[in-house]
Structures are given as C-alpha cells and as structure tokens.
Amino acid sequence: MAKVVVGFNKGFKKINGTRKRYRLFKGSAGSGKSVNIAQDFILKLMDPKNKGANLLVVRKIDASNKDSTFAELTAAVERVCGTKWQSYWKVKQSPLELECLITGNKVIFRGMKDVNEREKVKSINFSRGKLTWIWIEEATELQESDVDILDDRLRGLLPNRNLYYQMTFSFNPVSANHWIKRKYFDIEHQDIYTYSSTYLKNRFIDEAYHRRMMLRKEQDPEGYKIYGLGEWGELGGVILSNYSVHDFDIAFERFDSMHHAQDFGFNHANALLTVSFKDGELFVCNEIYVHQMDTNEIIESADKKQIVKSLPMYCDSAEPDRIKMWRDAGYNAIPVHKNQGSVKAQIDILKGLKIHIHPSCVNTIKEIQQWKWKKDPKSGLYRDEPVEVFDDAMAALRYSIEPLRINQEYSNIMLPTIGGWKMKGVNE
C-alpha cells in the first residue's frame, strides 16, 4: 500500500494519540471532530500493531448511524486508501459493518434506544479479537445509564500488548447541566482527556460556512456560543425545566388521550411529534424530525412508521397547502389558531405541566435543553420572547397543547380522553 497522506487539524494531534480510557471531543458545529475521529479510527484499525482491535459505533437511534457515522467512516476509508480501497476494506450495508482485510479488525454499529437494543449491546462478541474501542457520536443524546452499560463492555485481558480500552465521545455542548459535564469535565482524573474544538480552527472549512456562522452570531448570540464556539449552554434563560427523559410504554391504550403536532419546515427541520396525556401529565412519545424533505416524502415516512391517521394532528396554520396535502393523505390535520400572545400562552401552559420525553425523541431533547428566552443586549435581561433558532420540535410541542389553549378558561376542569377532550363531571 502506498504511503498514506491524510489531512488532520493540528489541534486534534494530542487527543488522537491519548490512550486514556475516556476521550471527549466537545466542539462547535463544523469543527471537524467527526471527520477527524473517523480518519483516526480507520488508520488505527489498519495498523498491524493493533491486530485484534474492534470498534463499536453508537448513537441513540441505530438508524441514524447510516447517514452519519457509517458515512463518515466509509468516506475516511476512501480518503486513506484511495481508489483501491476495496483491496483493504470490506463494507457491508445490511447490517452496517466494516472489516479491514489487512488486520481482520471490524467496525459494527448499534443503538441504545430501548431495553432490547441495550441487551443486544451486552452480548456483542467478535470472532477475532475483542471489543476495544467505542465511539459515541452525539453523546448528549444518551443517558448516563446507557454509557455505563457500554463502559462495562470494555473489560478483560487483551490479546495484544499494544491494545487498550477506550471510549470516545463527540458532541455539541448543548446544556451546562448535562450529566456529561458533571461526570467528565467538572473533575480531574487520570483516565479522562477532554478537548474543545471550534470551526474557527478547522482549516478545511469553507468561507461560506464562516459567513453563515457570523449570521447566526448576529441572530442568536446565545446559540452561537454553543454551535459556534463550542461552549456549554448557559443555565439562565432556559424556558422549560419541568421535564424528564426516561423510558415509558408508548402504547396507545395506556394513555387518556393521544394526538400529533407538526411544525412544517424544509431547510430548517420539519418536526412531527406524537404526544399523549395521562393523569394531566404530557408525554412526548415519538418524533419524525427531518430536513430537506418535501411533504409527500414526509407523509410516506409517517405511513411507514404507522402514525395513526385518525388522531388529531395540530399543524402550523401558516401553510394551508401542506395541511390539505396531509388531509388528502387521510390524516386528521387541523390548523393551529395563531393570534397575538398565542406563543406566550402556549408556553405558559407547557410550564404548568409535567412533561415526560421518551429517550428515542433525541431532537426534542436537544431542543428543549437549549430553548431560551431572548436576552436584551443592553440590559442583559431576558424578554418574554423565545429565540427563534433550532426550535422546530419546540414549535410542534407548543402546538400539541392547542386543545388546552383553546379551552384555557376551562383548563382547570378539563380532562384529556381518548379521541378528544371532556369536562369533569359532564361526560364521566
């Protein structure tokens, strides 16, 4: 094989070389961390000194690996090996898998969405070598218990003195109260190596991206700190804190009511949530969260997910044509009534509810962690107006309580029920 020449950003050199058990790549969007990690693993897996090493790549939702981590690793294979990459790597699409033909080392992909997927991770074995390395992409999507399960998999004697156990985390630091910060960044430990990167130090980024980030800096200074500078999200100004993320049964029968809510989008996300009520508490059960898909494609995706068509679907009233398309497809799409003060009214209702979010709703979780009030640049005080960036799932969440908002004057005596809403003492 010819001498490999692969481009790296200099800032990643030390963390790429560390053998500490935990290495954490915290960074802004466009900082190059995922590209760097993919190239680093491909080179290490091809090194004969690392024979017997195997890599497990994890995201909360297994299906999201295909267009993210798997795509990054296969692109890295082509950069490293050139046009003759098939002489050095075997790539499988179903299930996703890479195997180095030089060393026999493998890469496999998994999710941690539910109990079944977590149990499958516990039983992973390789015909040659051991599981030595784990890469967790979008690590803030995972719960601490998910990572503990993965951490327990890295144990036992290794077949090669050169090998070592290591977990690699890559993520945007969406919230300063995230467990990752507490567990790995707020302490000093000999087994932990952390590194922060930004798009400003990525020598491969284009000028158009720089202009885009400058625009975001002007429009959303708080969001720019996270997605531009890779800083932990501030605790101040967060709109909702009355939520918890945990597993729960999303079966229709266990709830008092269930319906859908949708915020339309194309370049920004199109968010479709399925929500339920039980004993006056709100449960976010499912999400479809996509970019650059037209309405017919999203409807097709909803059909495949077997979204119940007869349930009410509260939608952004600004796009009646899209609502008609959903109705023509058999869905019970209903426009949300917008008027002055409706956004604030929706938020007030949400703040008064206990909100439960299923761990599979990763984009809803990301958004709710950083959904904030706008800050007055002069006074430094927060205004009763949410930042309108990265809030598509939050818009759908607002629409989801439309029945409560419409009947706000009765909200203290209303109960959710399957197929609609009833008043206490009237229809019981």
From TrEMBL:
Residues 20-231 form the Phage terminase large subunit N-terminal domain. InterPro entries: P-loop_NTPase, Phage_terminase_lsu, Terminase_L_C, Terminase_L_N, Viral_DNA_packaging_terminase. Residues 263-402 form the Phage terminase large subunit C-terminal domain. This is PBSX family phage terminase large subunit. It comes from Priestia aryabhattai.
